[in-house]
C-alpha cells in the first residue's frame, strides 16, 4: 500500500512514528475528450486573455483575490517558507471525545495509519487505549500544505485518521431554503411511516451496495470495445408511484416490502449452509 505521508502522532509525552495510506480509492470511470474527426485527445492550454499568448508554467504566479479584480500576489518563496515551517509539526492529538458527539457532516477523507520504524509498541498502546476507553482523538496536522483537523479512531485492527471540516467550512442548516418549521403530520401517518422503517430495517452489509451506473458503463465500454452493436440495458427499476395521497403511498410501500422481508428471513439459513459446505 502506497505511503503518502510520514510523520508522528503525539499526545502528552507519547510520540508514535507513523505512515499514512489512503483508505479509499476513486473508482469513477474517467472519460477523455477527443476530437470528433480524428479521435485525438484534446489539449487544454493556459492562455492569457489579455496578452492572447500561451502562458508557460514559469510565468504563472499565485494570488488571492481580496475584492473583484484586485489581487495580492504571493511569491513561491513565501509559500515555500510557510510550508516548511508547518510541515515540521507532527500529528498532535489535542482532545479525546466520544465518536457519537461528532456529526457525520464534518467527515471528509479517511487514511489508514501504520506504525513507522520503532513505533509498533506505542501504536498498539494507543489502539488499545482508544478501544477500551471507547473514545477517539481529535488531532491537528499538516497534509499536502494544508492544515487539517482529524479524528483518530480504530477500524478493525488498524488506526485510521478521518480528516474533518472546520466548523466555519460547514454551512448553516438554517440557511437551507423551504425547510418546514414544524411537523404537520397526523399520528396515523407517523405510525405508518415508522412501520415502513421497521420493515426496511436490517443489518448494515457494505458488500450488498454496488455502483450500478459504473457497472453499466463498464459493460457498455466493453461491448463497444469488442465490436458488439447491440447493448442490452439493465432491467429498469419499478417506477415510483405517482400517488399524491401520503397515507396511500405509505401503505403501498409497506405492502411492497412484505415479500422482501419474508425472503430476508430465510437468507441467514442459506448463508450458513454455504459456509458449512465450504468448511467441509
What distinguishing features does this structure have?
single chain; 280 residues; alpha+beta; Ku70, Chain: A, Domain 2; two-stranded antiparallel ribbon; 31% helix; extended
Give the helices and strands, then pairings.
Elements: E1 5-11, E2 14-22, E3 47-48, E4 53-54, E5 62-67, E6 70-74, H1 76-87, E7 91-97, E8 107-115, H2 120-133, E9 136-143, E10 146-155, E11 158-164, H3 187-200, H4 212-225, H5 246-279
Parallel strand pairs: 1-7
Antiparallel strand pairs: 1-2, 2-8, 3-4, 5-6, 7-9, 8-11, 9-10, 10-11
How would you characterize this protein structure?
By secondary structure, the chain is α+β, with helices and mostly antiparallel strands. Among the domains are: 5-27 and 81-168, Ku70, Chain: A, Domain 2 (Beta Barrel); 186-202 and 245-280. 31% of the residues lie in helices and 26% in strands. It is built from five helices and eleven strands. The strands form three sheets. Strands 1-2-8-11-10-9-7 form a seven-stranded mixed β-barrel. It has a two-stranded antiparallel sheet with strand order 3-4. Strands 5-6 form a two-stranded antiparallel sheet. Strand 10 (146-155) and strand 11 (158-164) form a beta hairpin. Helix 3 (187-200) packs parallel to helix 5. The model is unreliable at 269-280 (pLDDT under 50).
Amino acid at each position: 500500500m502506497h505511503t503518502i505521508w510520514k510523520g508522528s502522532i503525539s499526545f502528552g509525552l507519547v510520540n508514535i512514528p507513523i505512515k499514512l495510506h489512503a483508505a479509499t480509492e476513486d473508482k469513477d470511470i474517467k472519460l477523455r475528450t477527443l476530437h470528433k474527426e480524428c479521435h485525438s485527445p484534446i489539449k487544454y492550454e493556459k492562455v492569457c486573455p489579455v496578452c492572447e499568448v500561451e502562458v508557460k508554467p514559469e510565468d504563472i504566479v499565485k494570488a488571492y483575490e481580496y475584492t473583484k479584480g484586485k489581487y495580492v500576489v504571493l511569491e513561491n518563496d513565501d509559500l515555500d517558507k510557510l510550508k516548511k515551517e508547518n510541515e515540521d509539526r507532527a500529528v498532535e492529538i489535542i482532545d479525546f471525545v466520544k465518536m457519537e458527539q461528532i456529526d457525520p457532516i464534518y467527515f471528509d477523507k479517511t487514511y489508514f495509519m501504520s506504525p513507522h520504524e520503532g513505533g509498533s509498541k506505542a501504536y498498539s498502546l494507543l489502539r488499545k487505549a482508544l478501544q477500551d476507553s471507547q473514545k477517539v482523538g481529535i488531532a491537528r496536522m499538516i497534509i499536502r500544505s494544508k492544515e487539517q483537523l482529524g479524528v483518530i479512531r480504530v477500524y478493525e485492527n488498524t488506526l485510521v485518521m478521518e480528516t474533518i471540516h472546520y466548523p466555519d467550512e460547514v454551512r448553516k442548516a438554517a440557511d437551507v431554503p423551504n425547510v418546514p418549521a414544524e411537523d404537520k403530520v397526523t399520528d396515523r401517518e407517523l405510525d405508518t411511516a415508522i412501520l415502513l422503517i421497521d420493515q426496511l430495517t436490517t443489518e448494515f452489509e457494505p458488500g450488498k451496495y454496488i455502483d450500478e451506473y459504473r457497472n453499466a458503463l463498464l459493460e457498455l465500454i466493453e461491448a463497444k470495445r469488442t465490436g458488439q452493436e447491440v447493448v442490452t440495458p439493465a432491467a429498469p427499476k419499478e417506477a415510483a408511484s405517482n400517488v399524491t395521497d401520503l397515507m396511500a403511498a405509505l401503505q403501498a410501500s409497506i405492502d411492497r416490502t412484505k415479500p422482501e422481508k419474508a425472503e430476508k428471513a430465510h437468507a441467514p439459513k442459506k448463508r450458513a449452509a454455504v459456509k458449512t459446505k465450504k468448511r467441509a
